Amino acid sequence: MRRVITLKEALRDFLKDAGLSLSDLLSAMDDDPKGIIDSLLMRVDISEEEAARLERLLTPDQLNLLILVLHVFYYANPSGYYKGYLLYPPYEMVVGPNGKVTREGLNLVMKSLGITPGIGA
Question: Mind listing the pLDDT tens digit for each residue in 32-45?
Fold first, then answer.
């Protein structure tokens, strides 16, 4: 029996359970790039330069998706499990000792969701 669920699968299931579509949810979120980046910087341990790079490379919907996923699956759920399944990428690989998502963790989340490019090495 499989005991792991990918972030993409968990997101799909979460939206289904909530009766929401991803586009409906994203359309209700902030579309001001400054507000999105400020929100990202509160949750992710990256520099302002790295955040500015993400702002240039990603759409507001992609940035909002990252914020949503980080909040739902990592901040609101530090157990690392979703419905009894170990979430991949796991909490320990995404969130650092300071409680913020690490740069490497953000890249793992982006890769898991199919959002590219990452913020680099």
Answer: 778 888 999 999 99
